Each structure stands twice: as structure tokens, then as C-alpha cells.
Amino acid sequence: MHADLSRLTFHPERHYSAVVAQQGRVQLDADANEQTAIQLHRARTLAADLIGRYGGPRDAAGFRVEYVGGKHDIDTLYIHGGRYYVDGILLDADRPAPGTPVPDEDEDAEAEDAEDTATPPSYWTYWDQPDAFRDPEKPGDRLPSPAQSPFVVYLNVWERSVNAAEDPALREVALGATMPDTAARVKVVWQVLPLSLAALAIEDADPSKEAVRAAFDKWAQRRAAATARLAARSERPDHADEDPCLVRPDARYRGPENQLYRVEVHADGEAKDATFKWSRENGSVVFPVDALDGTWVQLASLGHDDKLDLDVGDFVEFTDTAHASRLEALPLLRVEELDLPGRRVRLSAEPEPGVGRLPHLHPFVRRWDHREGPRRRGRTAALKGGAVPVAEGEWLALEDGVEVYFAKGGTYRTGDHWLVPARTATGSVEWPTDPARRPLLQGPAGIARHFAPLALVKGEESAVDLRLAFGPLANGIPAADEATLAAEEQAHREELAAESPSHGRSQTTAEAESAVEGDE
Predict the structure, then answer these.
(1) Taken in order 304, 310, 315, 319, is the CA torsion positive or negative?
(2) How many CA atoms lie less than 13 Å away from 181 in the CB half-sphere?
(3) Three-state DSSP class for 501?
(4) What three-state secondary structure class fits 165?
(5) pLDDT tens for the 520 residues of the chain, in order
(6) In whole angstroms, what is the distance from residue 231 CA to residue 464 CA?
């Protein structure tokens, strides 16, 4: 997540079951976040083990899909409410009911009736689903025509961080405008999207449910698996002797402060097309946008100090909630001029059309810390779209001795990222190594992608439901039959007899008295 973190310490292979706080100790964000991650991992693993890869409660399963076309200008889907689980992640498709405002004193009954007729439906549509942000003006967003070929509707599920720049309600106004925000949030994003049968390698025009599910599972496994791998290390740079004595002479990491470096894929594809960006603050330095006028951007606030503000030469990502949810790689723009009294910055180009123009989508600027560097090792460090081109099989310097290495043969996906904590106490970065202290290649720390099929659309009112459902585990306690009740009563009598066979006398005394009575 893009948040101001010290580091992330949760690793499921360590099998920790709880974080235990100790008295008189410093409290760190990493400890609290690890406890949350432990509980979330346990709950989702349990749900996935019991439910399977995906499924919904039989009486409240959500995401029933209807295709609506023909008489409408633009084809759409109706997405009905309810709950569904994908890899243990709970999804809720219920559409919140609109609130009822207090009517004006002079408002008549006719106006109230008009408002009632404007109430939105209880279901979502393909075009207004909360996290997909589909655009009818983009041909790639439109639904395929089932008359030409059936298509599959599926769920794309992932998580992203949200801070006060995107959701102002997270900020406690009582702390004042000059104070930083507090905690960020992690949001489950679900998107209902179309997928052609050709993408699933299905040639049959009328496949069975089982065939579609099997082909979809194979497709989902390929899409979910990340092939890109990265390693990180700290190496004392050649110019270290020229630096002022801010750190100890033998430190490999030369930064004056502890940092959490974030290396994030920007443009996706193979190595020849992919780019990345990096931040020493985990990409957490963001500025809400109040207005956009050409290349001039007016910000709601500036940074709280010289470490968290903007400067000429910085590269920024001008985006909003919609494009952040779509995981689209927008060009990174350079800060060319600052107007501090007016809280304005001039960018190297005007942001992409349609980005950041709607206030309800909360436009914001995110700062990244890479620079366009000089020629190094026979290769220029020229940027592509404002981001750094991926170069596999060699160590790439970030800053202050921090270097990263992309393994050969990777495929890169926008949003995938790696986190590299750098510490002044050790003069190094925290990264797993082998016994010979060689850095180990690691897959991305995120984004984890999850998929589930919902329906096979063959035409209007002809959608084959591909969802799975489960029933409740709890059942009523059955009444015992007569034989069982009699057996229980007999066992009870035998138990009482064994405990007190002669009303308090010993077994030997009772047997002796019985023998005497027999002789008489």
C-alpha cells in the first residue's frame, strides 16, 4: 500500500499467531500492522479452505448477472446484491440505499413524489459499479455483442490503499488543517468485467458450465501468477568519500535517514516495454488537487517539511480515484515551476484528457523520487514516459548506495511493487540473502489479483450462471427415537446401581447378610 510506513514485517512462513505488546517499549506501526495482517490471513485462509476458491451463501449469494441490450443505446449488465467470497475475500454487492433528506418547508407533495421516482435501483449496472469506472466513450470498455459470440463475465478482485487525499472523511478535522493525516485504509476493489471465449481458448460456441469453469481457472492462474522477480542490496558508491560525514565511513547505505523504498512497475509488458518508478517514502507523498488550469495545478496543501514537499525537477503522477482503480499507467510529469504563495505547481505537460477533471473523483498528485540520470555503464538513464526503463540482468542504482536487480525473462504488471527498508543503524538495506550473503530474488509484495467467473452471456435474458453456492453448516438437533431414550435410561439406572448398590453398606456386608437370610 502507498502509506507512510516504517516497514512491513508479516511473513506467513514464520507462522506467528499473534503480536505481543511489552510494557515500556516503543510502539511501532509495523507491530500493529502485522497483527492486523495475521488476523486477516487467518480469516481468509479459513474461509477459502471451507468455501473453496469462490462461492456465495445459498440464500444471499451476490453478483447475479443479467445482460441488457437491444432496446438500450449502450449494452449493460445488472449486478444484483448479496455476498460472495473469492479466495476467502468477502465481497459485498449490495447497493447502499440513498438517504432521505429533510424536506423544505415549502416543498409540496408533488415534489416529494418526483424525488421518490428518482430513487436509483437496488442493483449496480456495468457502467456505475463502484470501483470499475467504465467509460462508454472508450471502445475497449464496451461489452462484446453476444449475438456475434458468447462471452464470460467475471470478477476481478484486488486491494489498494486509500489515504485522506482520496477520502477526505479519513482526516480528523479536530486536529487542524496543519496536522498530517492519521491512519490510511486498505480497500477491497471488485470489478465485473467481460472476457471473450477466445481468451479462454474455448472454440465451442456453446460450452458447458464445467468446460468454462475449467478454462477460466487455467486463465486465472496465469493472470494471478507474477513472473517478475527483483533483488535489492546496498553498495558503497564510488563517490562516498566525497560526501560530508553524515554517516559512518564504512556504511553501504549512505542516506541520512531511515527509509522504506518502493520500487513499482509503471508501464507493463515485457522488459523492453516495461518501466518502473521508485519512492524513498513508499509512494506516500501525495497532494490533493483543488484546480487544474492547463499545466498549472493548484494544490489543497503543500508538504509539512522540506522532505515531504515538491521541488523543481520532481516527477509526479497526476491521477484520481478512477484511474488509480483502473491501474492505468499515466505519463509521469516533471515539476517545472513552483508558486508557493499560491500553492501552485507548473508541470511539464498538461495531464491526460479526462484525468482529474471531476472533483468527486478526488484528483491528487503523487510524488516519485527517481531522476533522469547521466550515462552509466554504457547505457543512458533516459526516462520513458517519465518512468525508468526496466533493464534486466544488471544492478540499477537508485540513490545513496541502494541498488535493485531485475531477473531476466520477467513479465511486468502495472502496480506490482517491492519494498526495501534502508536503515542508518546498520548502514544497509533489509533484504533476504543466502548463506553467502547474496541477495535473493523475490516476487512482488503486491498486488495480489483474484478472479472468479460469474456468468456466460449468450444473449438478453440468456446468461448461464457460473457462480457456486454453499449452505449453512448449522443444523437443528434431531429428537432421539424410543430405543435411544430407553437405552439412555437403562444406562442411567446401571450407573446409579454401581455407585450405591446397597444404600451405603459395603459390598461384603450386603453379601453376608443375604447368605444368612438364605440359610434361615
Answers:
(1) positive
(2) 22
(3) coil
(4) coil
(5) 899 999 999 999 999 999 999 999 999 999 999 999 999 999 999 999 999 999 999 999 999 999 998 665 789 999 999 999 999 999 999 999 888 888 887 665 555 555 555 677 889 999 999 999 999 989 899 999 888 889 999 999 999 999 999 999 999 989 887 778 899 999 999 999 999 999 999 999 899 999 999 999 999 999 998 899 999 999 987 666 666 556 667 678 888 899 999 999 999 999 999 999 999 999 999 999 999 999 999 999 887 777 889 999 999 999 999 999 999 999 999 999 999 999 999 999 999 998 999 999 999 999 999 988 654 554 556 899 999 999 999 999 999 999 999 999 999 999 999 999 999 999 999 999 999 999 999 999 999 999 999 999 998 878 999 999 999 988 887 777 888 888 888 998 988 888 765 554 445 555 555 555 555 5
(6) 45
d(CA 115, CA 463): 33
At 347, which amino acid appears? L
What is the DSSP code string of 337-406?
EEETTTTEEEESSPPPTTSS--GGG--EEEEE----EEEETTEEE--BTTBEEP-BTSEEEEETTEEEEE
Pairing of strands 344-347, 364-368: unpaired
Check: pTM over 0.85? Answer yes or no.
Answer: yes
CA 243/CA 249 separation, integer angstroms: 10
